[in-house]
Amino acid sequence: MSKKPGFFGRFYMGFILFFLYAPIFVLIVFSFNSTRSRTVWTGFSLQWYQRLFSDGTILDAFYTTLIIAALAAVISTVAGTIAAVGFYNMRSRWRIPLTQINNIPMMNADIVTGVSLSLLFVSLGSVLQFRLGFGTLLLAHITFCIPYVVLAIMPKLRQIDRNLVDAACDLGCTWMKAFWKVIIPEIRPGIINGLIIAFTLSIDDFVISYFTAGGNIMTLPMQIFAMTRRRISPEINALSTILFMSVLILLIIINVRDVKQEEKLKKRAAALNQ
Amino acid sequence: MRKTTIVTALVCLLLLAALTGCGQETPAAGEDPTNGGAPAQAQVVHVHNWGYFIDRDVLGIFEEEYGIRVIYHEFVNNETLYAALQLGGMIADVIIPSDYMIARMIEEEMLYELNFSNIPNYTLIDPRFRSLAFDPENRFSVAYKVGTTGLIYNSAMIPYEITSWSALFDERFAGQILMFNNPRDAFAVALQYLGYDINTINEDEIQEAFELLMEQRSILQAYVMDEIFDKLESGEAWIGPWYAPDFLTMYAHNPDLRFVRPAEGTNFFVNAMVVPRGSENRTNAEKFINFMVRTDIALMNMRAIKYASASYDAAVIFAEELNDLERDVVFVGPEEYALTEVFYHLPSHILELYDRLWIQLRGLS
Amino acid sequence: MKPKYFSIPYVGWMAMFVVAPIIIVFVYAFTTPGGEFTLRNFSDMGIFMPVFFRSFRLAFIATLLCIALGYPVAYILAREASRVQLVLFMLIMLPLWMNFLLRTYAWMSILENTGLLNQFLSFLGLPTVRIINTQTAVVIGMVYNFLPFMILPIYSVIVKIDKNLLEAAHDLGANSFLVFRKLIVPLSLPGILSGVTMVFVPAVSAFVITQLLGGGMVFLLGDLIEMQFLGTAHNPQVGSAISILMMLIVIAFVILMNKFGSGEEKAVGL
Which residue in B25, B33, B297, C3 could disulfide with A89, CB within 3.0 to 4.6 Å? Predict the structure, then answer.
């Protein structure tokens, strides 16, 4: 792409960014409003932040979300890595149909996944005497996270030079040793990507949680949904602001670190060249 | 080899833990899921109530006095509560649906009979609210709140006096009208406006009400449940039917709002506490019901949410605390009471008709 | 232990949590509440057709709008200098990290009758508009929520297009428009197709956006399914039948589109 975008291109980009950020900006501004109104500015206050931090139900929902997301991300990353390595070593006669089944939760509408898991848990529950709640929510989250982990790892596996594994085996490694010493380090970026994707997906999910929690446990998105169906409080705005700012700061830190590392590398390279 | 075995075993173990974890009491929001000790968890009661239908502080008092942890949930309306219970998997010890839904749950054997020896405060319940039609022998329920429906409108936007349900079908207010987002309440408004019994089983009358509601769609702003608070208070909508006592809460936020019981009549509702089948803490549930009836607790709830309690002594005290306007909203005088109708449980073919028409109304125009 | 057996636990998991649930939905769809076989759940489906049409129509409009808005973004983005590209890319993806309920909720404040847009219009002395609780509001909500899902795959394809190819085309006398039409568009087609899938599927089954921005007045398939399972018309059997029908139509649509897509790719000679 040789030519740089012209004035019109820049203008259009600005318009799209405005479209993407105007609502978020509105949310943030009104989180500091002094009255309950979401549309009329009446003055600055921090009361919605104070209320947010003293609101037990929101904080509870937040902890639940974090615990579920952490467990789901770790479990699905471990399971997804093992599954991906297994798929990779299968004959395509088996691999292709299995990867297609693996894709089902990604292709299916969330509501169908949610409804079907809810029916499964309800039927299992009536046989095995358990109710919906934390356990079923976690199982559901793991189920929809694993396919993305597999998807993140598969390309990295395909990039591995098969000779590398063979060489390791020839040098006396058992296959297991080769797995730990060769394959895992090679696909590490994919594993980390998968972990991050799984964590974000789990934190963000509303629809599947809504159907598999059985009304017994609330995640943060479910709590937000409940709040929007009541008398709406700018606590939601305060919450949005905090979430948005944390992601923004996190991204900035990561990027600044990357840039600094790049510069360090450049300096080192320059020093070596001299 | 060894390491994979360990990892696989670990994964299996985690899964097993997750599965058995939900085999016992599932920890609810906020409860530390790692703290799965049975003795600590045995002392809980799962309560499902309408939104804005309790003074949350009473839950703390209950927990302190009884050492039983309350896990409190809210539902949107009777029908969603019913659906969640029917679908299964819901943990509930005390639920507080309204009259007609209780009748349906009794008929479909979804409730446990109460052990009234655990509910000595039952004697505090106003005799008028015992053994009502939905539970004639009073074996399943203890009344919690009573009230009527009515119309709430913004007098700054609607400078006329409203006296009839007809205002909800008035084209002058097009785009500013709200409507109940549940079939029974919505059809009741239409049926009363048309002059029919709200429990009619005449399919032609129900069909006529349906057509009226279909016509109303074009001038409607939204179907709402608790969203109505926000929309009326902020002036986003001008008029809507709702449960009378909530008017006082809305009025405190927007003094332009007015309340009226339409001349055609309104619905008199009773919300009662019942214990659904599948409850694993029935004694705790009965303790909670007993506690909620107590005069001081009933009074706290009334002061917070303004709905008249079925507890007689508390209601008398509360009535004295109100001014005339407030008393008219919360309590119904004998003349107005004559104009109210109570919902009955309908036969199943009528319920099916309601379901079908409701879906058509909501989705098919 | 041979490596190919690694996936056995996960195959078991898929059987349990991916395949079995769908089988259960099928079983529900073909039975009465009493558990007897029936086709009624499907034969009565006729009355829901308007909801199907509306859902697919709105999802279609939202997807087209996402292409129309997102394609130029991806194209412009790919032409920026790499440092600028990175920053802009982050800026486009950043809203996705905020929960979509919050993003949708933000639009309520803007679109309401007494909302910011109408305040702004009346400030300018212009007539106010009624958008909230209409299909327009729902489509805006869909486009806003799903636009990054369209930009991302298109961008990742365009950015990989070989510059030499474009230069060669220029050298051979093709003008910019011709290059765009004959090379860039066909080459970015796979990106558009995966973008379409990523936007269309959630749009067709949306139920939260319709409740927040549609006020219960815009009723889509997601609402219909939710109503049958957890809402005001309890009937999980009918809900299952609707879910299956929706699933099959979506799958057919995706397969058809990919067929069409791969045909196009061949036409370009790649």
Answer: C3
Question: Which residues on chain A are in Cβ contact (under 8 Å) with B19?
Answer: 130, 135, 139
Q: Is A263's Cβ below 8 Å from some Cβ in C?
A: no
In sequence order, the β-bridge partners of residue B341 are: B267
Minimal C-alpha gap between C172 and chain B (Å): 57
> Per residue in C137-180, pLDDT tens?
999 999 999 999 999 999 999 998 888 888 888 888 888 888 88
Task: Tell me the CATH number for domain B42-146+270-324.
Answer: 3.40.190.10
Alpha-carbon distance values, B262 to B250, C96, C203 (Å): 19, 48, 42
CB nearest C107 (choices: A23, A39, A90): A23
Facing residue for C234 by CB, picked from B12, B79, B236: B79
Q: Is C6–A83 a contact, with Cβ atoms under 8 angstroms apart?
A: yes
Tell me the fold of B147-269+331-363: D-Maltodextrin-Binding Protein; domain 2 (3.40.190)
On the CB side of A262, CA atoms within 13 Å amount to 7
Could you give the CA distance from residue A232 to residue C95 in angstroms, rounded to a whole number?
A: 22
**Three-state DSSP class for residue B151:** strand
Q: From residue C204, how far is each of A12, A147, B360, C200, C225 by CA, in Å?
A: 28, 22, 19, 6, 12
pLDDT (tens digit, 9 = 90+) per residue, A204-224? 999 999 999 988 899 999 999
Give the predicted TM-score (pTM) of the model: 0.90
| CA-atom Rg of chain A in angstroms | 24
- Which amino acid is residue B227, in one-letter code? E
CA proximity to C4, closest of A23, A94, A120, B34: A94
Q: Residue count of chain C, please give it.
A: 270
Identity of the residue in C10, C28, C167 whose CB atom sits nearest the CB atom of A86: C10
CATH number of residue C143's parent domain:
1.10.3720.10
**Domain presence at residue C5:** no
Cα–Cα distance for residue pair B56/B74, rounded to 1 Å? 12
Q: Is C229 on the interface with A (CB under 8 A)?
A: yes
